[in-house]
């Protein structure tokens, strides 16, 4: 699904912020991306999302070499990826319903064709009563769940989540984690960037990708 | 699956499927750059409509002047020292009546000539002391044969000089053409200035909404979809501005036409009416103003779309 081979990235003429990355992410797997703050977790997620292009090495995603992708092909691939940003990136002038429906609207689908689907997902993430609320009046946890729902609505093959539990209390963090596990069981490959060790300890089966000094060390999880 | 619980957010009324809000524009309508663009487009549309309407009025007035000037001709009778001027005038009138009919010929008497010269020469003038030509005016029918009249006059009254006003008509055409060309140039300048303002506003809006563009890309929106959102946004702003500017221009010409009719009998009003007609654009003219407003609306949408598409390509 996603394969990094000798990938390195530098900004301008500076030193490489990540280098010699070699790893793969297989379908229907669950992994945590962890490491100290500033180690390059977000950079690595952006490379996976193809919002950054490597300065060396190759990234294969869904069987395609990222270097040869046209913009339309990149758009097509992004439709197979769900992403949850650390700062949510919800559009403040749209309601929760409209934010969650955004990927389907971007696909050009008629609103009537996805209304029930979006409402069901919103109820599933516990936002059934908040569909008409706009992000500025939502709590941190509600924004987080709305951002997750937006990533899930297209049933992505790969989910990338950057510190999805960073803004919520431990109880809600556990509940959100259950959402990701449920999604993983439904067939999605999940990558969660976090530095919350307690959270990772809850899922012993998950693979851990530890970023440090610009490199990634991988520790396989215990079989379920 | 257990649903995540609430976590202290502000209370809000429960949503139902029927009441859920949807279909809001992805580019927020209320923004400073958007409001400024509406004002700029309104002013530019008003100016474009004024120049277009003004050019139309001048073109109409010049056509009326030309029709008026070319509808009759003047015969000047310049008697020689030994000629009886009245007899020559009678002969000229007879020739003109033969060509154009008796109802179409009017000879100015010596008293009429005196009245014509009075504003310049004063009351106490004796025309007998001056070689003042006498004038015969002939109103032309559509099938009038001016060449035949000229030939007859040359043969039977060589003291007469025929002026068919074509030189004047030509000068009026040149003047009106120059005014219309100038108005067209101003119109084009206004459109260029407006296009430039739209360009700045579009780039400003894209920068202002950069995060929205990024999010749209991350959720799988194509450039075409993003460009469509901006296109719709600017088309709406352009329509608002064009409607305000075009409406104001139509109101201006309607008010000017009303004022012109109201002051038609005053000396100033008569001169204005002679220059510009009655300020009446007519249905075609008002349709033209609506067309200008429509073109401005389309132009706003098309230009902004092109700029956004170029900007999105540069992002790649």
Automatic annotation (TrEMBL), chain A:
PROSITE patterns: ABC_TRANSPORTER_1 (PS00211), ABC_TRANSPORTER_2 (PS50893). Gene3D superfamilies: P-loop containing nucleotide triphosphate hydrolases. The keyword Cell membrane applies. It is a peripheral membrane protein. It is found in: Cell inner membrane; Cell membrane. GO terms for molecular function: ATP binding; ATP hydrolysis activity; transmembrane transporter activity. GO terms for biological process: cell division. The keyword Mitochondrion does not apply. GO terms for cellular component: plasma membrane. Residues 2-224 form the ABC transporter domain. Homodimer. Forms a membrane-associated complex with FtsX. Part of the ABC transporter FtsEX involved in cellular division. Important for assembly or stability of the septal ring. Belongs to the ABC transporter superfamily. This is Cell division ATP-binding protein FtsE. The lineage of its organism: Bacteria, Pseudomonadati, Pseudomonadota, Alphaproteobacteria, Hyphomicrobiales.
UniProtKB/TrEMBL annotation, chain B:
This is Cell division transport system permease protein. The lineage of its organism: Bacteria, Pseudomonadati, Pseudomonadota, Alphaproteobacteria, Hyphomicrobiales. GO terms for cellular component: cell division site; membrane. The chain crosses the membrane at residues 36-59, 172-200, 242-264. One of its GO terms (biological process) is cell division. Keywords: Cell cycle, Cell division, Membrane, Transmembrane, Transmembrane helix. It comes from the Bacteria.
């Amino acid at each position: 699904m996603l394969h990094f081979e000798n990938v390195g990235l530098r900004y301008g003429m500076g030193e490489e912020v990540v280098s010699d990355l070699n790893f793969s992410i297989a379908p229907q797997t669950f992994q945590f991306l962890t490491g100290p703050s500033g180690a390059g977790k977000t950079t690595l997620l952006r490379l996976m999302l193809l919002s950054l292009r490597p300065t060396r090495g190759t990234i294969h995603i869904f069987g395609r070499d990222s270097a040869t992708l046209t913009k339309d092909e990149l758009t097509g691939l992004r439709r197979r990826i769900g992403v949850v940003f650390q700062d949510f990136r919800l559009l403040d002038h749209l309601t929760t319903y409209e934010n969650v429906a955004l990927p389907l609207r971007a696909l050009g689908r008629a609103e009537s064709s996805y209304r029930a689907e979006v409402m069901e997902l919103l109820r599933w993430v516990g936002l059934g009563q908040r569909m008409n609320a706009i992000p500025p009046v939502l709590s941190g946890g509600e924004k987080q769940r709305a951002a997750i729902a937006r990533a899930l609505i297209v049933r992505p093959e790969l989910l990338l989540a950057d510190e999805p539990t960073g803004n919520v209390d431990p109880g809600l963090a556990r509940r959100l984690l259950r959402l990701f596990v449920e999604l993983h069981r439904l067939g999605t490959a999940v990558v969660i960037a976090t530095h919350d060790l307690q959270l990772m300890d809850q899922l012993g089966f998950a693979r851990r990708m530890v970023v440090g000094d610009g490199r990634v060390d991988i520790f396989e999880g215990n079989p379920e | 699956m257990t649903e995540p619980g609430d976590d202290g957010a502000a209370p809000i009324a429960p949503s139902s499927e029927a009441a859920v809000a949807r279909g809001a524009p992805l580019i927020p309508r209320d923004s400073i750059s958007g409001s400024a663009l509406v004002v700029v487009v309104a002013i530019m549309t008003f100016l474009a409509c004024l120049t277009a309407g003004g050019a139309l009025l001048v073109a109409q007035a010049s056509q009326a002047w030309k029709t008026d000037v070319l509808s009759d001709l003047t015969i000047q009778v310049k008697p020689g020292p030994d000629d009886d001027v009245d007899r020559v005038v009678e002969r000229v009138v007879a020739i003109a009546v033969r060509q154009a009919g008796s109802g179409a010929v009017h000879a100015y008497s010596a008293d009429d000539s005196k009245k014509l010269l009075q504003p310049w020469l004063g009351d106490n003038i004796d025309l007998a002391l001056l070689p003042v030509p006498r004038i015969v005016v002939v109103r032309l029918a559509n099938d009038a044969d001016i060449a035949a009249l000229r030939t007859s006059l040359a043969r039977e009254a060589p003291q007469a000089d025929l002026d068919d006003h074509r030189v004047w008509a030509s000068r009026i055409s040149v003047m009106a053409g120059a005014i219309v060309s100038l108005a067209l140039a101003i119109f084009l300048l206004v459109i260029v200035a407006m296009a430039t303002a739209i360009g700045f506003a579009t780039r400003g809006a894209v920068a202002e909404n950069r995060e929205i563009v990024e999010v749209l890309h991350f959720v799988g929106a194509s450039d075409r979809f993003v460009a469509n959102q901006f296109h719709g946004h600017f088309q709406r702003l352009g329509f608002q501005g064009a409607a305000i500017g075009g409406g104001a221009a139509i109101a201006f010409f309607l008010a000017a036409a009303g004022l012109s009719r109201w002051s038609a009998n005053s000396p100033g009003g008569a001169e204005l009416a002679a220059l510009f007609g009655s300020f009446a654009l007519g249905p075609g003219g008002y349709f033209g103003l609506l067309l200008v407003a429509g073109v401005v609306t389309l132009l706003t949408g098309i230009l902004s779309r092109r700029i956004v598409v170029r900007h999105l390509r540069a992002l790649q």
